[in-house]
Amino acid sequence: MPGRFTLTTAILLALATTGARADTIRIGVNEPLTGAFAASGTYVVNGARIAADEINARGGVLGKKLELVVEDNKSNPTEAAAVAEKLITSDKTPVLMGAWGSSLTLAVMPKLMDYEVPMLVETSSSGKITTSGNPFVFRISPPSALEAETFAPMVSKLGMKKVDFLVLNNDFGRGAATDFGKMLKEKGVQIGLTEIMDQGAQDMSAQLAKLKGSDSDTIMITSAVDQLVLLFKQMSALGLKKRVITTGGSQNPDQIIAQAGSAADGTMHLTTFLPWLPEKTPDPKATETFIAEWKKRGFQFAGVTESFRGYDGIRAIAHAIEKAGKAEPAAITKAFWSVDFTGLNGPIRFAKSGPAGKESGQSKPDVYLIEIKDGRVVVPTL
Amino acid sequence: MSRLLPFALLAALAALPLALGTNPYLLNALIVTGILTIGAMSLNLLLGFTGQLSLGHIAFFGIGAYVSALTSLGFDVEIGFGYRVVHEPWPAAVGFLLAVVAAGLSGYLIGRLSFRVRGAYFVLVTISFAEVVRLVALNWVELTQGPLALTNIPAITLGLPGLGTWTLRTKLQNYYLVLGVGTLCWLVVASLVGSRFGRAMRGLKENESLALSVGINATRTLTVAAVISAAMAGAAGSLYAHYLRIIDPDVFLFSTTVSMVIMVVAGGKGTLMGPVIGGLIFGLLPVALRPVMAPEAQWIVYGLVLIVILFVMPRGIVPGLAALLARRSARAVPVLEASPEVQR
Amino acid sequence: MEQLIQHLVNTLILGGTYALLGIGLTLIFGIMNVVNFTHGALYTVGAYLTYLAVAALGLDLFLALPVAILGGLLLGALIEVVLLRPLRGQDIDTTMLVMIGAGIVLQSGTLWIFGGVAKAVPSPFPEAPLQIGPASVSWLRLFVLGAALLLIGLTYALINRTKLGLAMRAAFQDSDTAALMGVNVRVIYTATFAMGSALAAAAGALLGPVYVVHPQMGGLAELKAFAIVILGGLGNVTGAAIGGFILALAEELGAGYISSGYRDAMGFLIIIAVLLYKPTGLFAKAERVG
């Protein structure tokens, strides 16, 4: 029996000790490729690959090619922490990108402190990530408070009087309900019901029947695209006709149009990227190049609203390494503070957030309100 | 030889970090595997020795994790009618002890509740219990932070009066802590199984009506087994919370119970060594598969390995190998009949 | 009041599919003493088969359904012959774990083949709902309810009115005696498992167009099927049918009037309550299997 055990160990050791090669700069990518968030994580990774290939085609960073070490965190926080550990200690990556969901990112964060390695957070929205005093976190996605703040000027233009919430039962959904609720109250808008749905729930007709009976004029929904498709179909089946605004940036309007059909007509969405109208994005040329490459690789167009974050994330990391002058964790952490370029959804530069002395970095992306009209994405005139 | 095996394994595990050097990734995999293996050992007490398959075992693990984390983090909740319960943070070691007690208590409650039924009913009641506990952890946001997760859980501090304190932050310290708790759990299970109580348990498993006729109190025996099993799972959960330093309601995922059951059954239920061997193999299998194949394919292999083990060695790896060895020695020395001694 | 009527209409619609989900599982348990942990995966496979038939073969939904049901039937028969037949006589835990392994393989296989992005199956029915007083209901879901009730009726007829059904009932009562009386128990087991699998696939095929098709869709469906089956008493087909409607009612009212966060807990709370009150399920005394 001990013989069998040492054999296993030997195999493990042989597999795990693949040291860093000197001619490349390794970037650890920690994303969900299986489990509940498999689709989104795969999109982000594909976007990241485009960025790396593009940078390498131009000669790489500091004269070396970028090499992405992609690992699957199985949509599971424990795995996400283990993966971070592997990327840092075994693959010797000096910087990470990840980990899509907030609970995944939160699980990774203590590891960043332990090993003093920086991570670029591309998707997670929980406020906790940049307020808990972790100086190795740099985020390019907006937390829901920031999203609410950007949305605030549109509230009165839309004529919102009373709002109900229908949110996912996790930090993403509940955080959005809290932050948007606070902002709306300050604007003098009444808050009605706050209904919860489980991640992976397929039938929300009970919650919708309740919302149908309320006297509010708007329902704000926070969830990912698959559930939104179901919601719009079920709302139309229940004859529920109120203004709908979705938040969170994981809505993927093209998939909604393709799968929910006319049920999605008239719905509004807060999004951080405008791939349908490249001329209105901050860097139209970069947007067009990215979308052209995405299509060339045979990926679904619907994925770009997710994958652009992976693309921008890797570009931000490349800028940081360039500024650091060497691929070492401490230098890169410091260099993140001087990153300043125009990403696909606005300027990427990090402002300090969280307790003094150990602030995290938070970039402030643009937030757009779009509407689905006759099966097309338009920017509503307010 | 089989008597020496546990000691040899313990020595090998204790020496392992020396062989591994300080590869934190492998140490991490070993620590998490070790914690799950403790869970599997506790499950084996119920499944292997009393024959009751609990598919809600993760509930005790999760309760242990949450109790321990909340004890060491503190909380402030309203319990209705305007009353508030405020708790100031206590040391993590106290959290560990309370986790064991709380998990044991819930084991008692579930035991009283669900040992009224047997077989598939018992399986489904235990699944339901775990799901309800998960949903409470998810929805009682004021206490558990719900899906926002409990973060910054402190590491366990061991202290002896007069000798100072010792905070277990590094991988190596945690590895030996897990190994220590694991060994302790092993000793508890081993001494239980060898005792009169152990014979009562096995009697119930072999033939319940016969056991009842000789005066064994079925519900009491099963409940005591459930309490000890749950307490051990709670200890594993506490170790998990203080090692990972973050927990969210996903600790209650059904798939973790399935992993533990796989460890027990593949290793050999009702044997002392089975859950340990099964735990090591199935805990480290994903680590070994990770570099060589696509993530989806890893899961497929995991499923296939489970099926193959059950087909080739339906009683598990440890009894299977023991039988194989016994047959071989029987063939080598034909005069020797396959006596019970050889089987053992 | 209007809200209540809508909740009750929803219950009826949801209950039909829950009943369909439960029956397949309880049938297999009742006759074969196997807790089928591939039920959720077969549900997923049924949904993907419909998607394939509609998207790749260009069939319309009414023709895609029989394709998916046939697929479930064949896959179920294959699983039984390859995995369960050799394990006959092993204890229930072993077969349960083999089923868990097969479930993992099937579910990861669907993810591998189809990817994680959800697929939509187009519906041939008008988008505008049917208005019944203050409540509304979609035509598609009415069709699904009708088809589910039809399949449940067919299952009943098969068990009660055919020779195969008679043999199944005999095998349920006492497989040894049935074998002595000339019933080929091996064939009965394969037929039973194939039938239960076909029902799971049918549920997936019917709900695929209502929801979206996704590799993870089977997990929740499986847990609900367990709740339904235990509610009705393991192995009790009538009980499972009624259990499906009870669970739907509890979820609707629970989400509507208590808290939507606990919607999915309702099933499990009911199980615990039922087992406290009557440990063998609500309908244990009723005639089992038909």
Report the end-to-end length of chain A measured between terminal Cα atoms. Answer: 73 Å
Radius of gyration of chain B: 21 Å
Largest sheet of chain B: 2 strands, antiparallel
Beta strands of chain A, count: 16
Description:
The complex is a heterotrimer of chains A (382), B (344) and C (290). With 382 residues, chain A is α/β, with parallel strands linked by helices. Chain A folds into 2 domains: 17-142 and 286-362, Rossmann fold (3-Layer(aba) Sandwich), CATH 3.40.50; 145-271, Rossmann fold (3-Layer(aba) Sandwich). Chain A has helices at 2-16, 38-57, 77-90, 102-115, 128-131, 144-158, 171-186, 205-212, 225-237, 253-260, 284-296, 304-324, 329-336; strands at residues 24-31, 65-72, 96-98, 119-121, 137-139, 162-168, 190-197, 218-222, 243-247, 268-271, 341-343, 346-348, 351-353, 360-362, 368-373, 376-378. In chain A, strands 2-1-3-4-5-14-13 form a 7-stranded mixed sheet, sandwiched between helices. In chain A, α4 links the parallel β3 (96-98) and β4. The radius of gyration of chain A is 21 Å and the shape is globular. The N and C termini of chain A lie far apart (73 Å). Chain B has a domain at 19-253. Chain B has a two-stranded antiparallel ribbon. Chain B has a two-stranded antiparallel sheet with strand order 3-4. In chain B, α11 (254-267) packs across α12. Chain C has one domain (15-217). Chain C has a two-stranded antiparallel ribbon. In chain C, a hairpin with a 2-residue loop joins β1 (130-132) and β2. Mean pLDDT of chain C is 86; it is low at 285-290. Chains in contact: A-B, A-C, B-C.
Keywords:
heterotrimer; B: 344 residues; mainly alpha; two-stranded antiparallel sheet; 4 strands; globular; disordered C terminus; C: 290 residues; two-stranded antiparallel ribbon; 2 strands; 73% helix
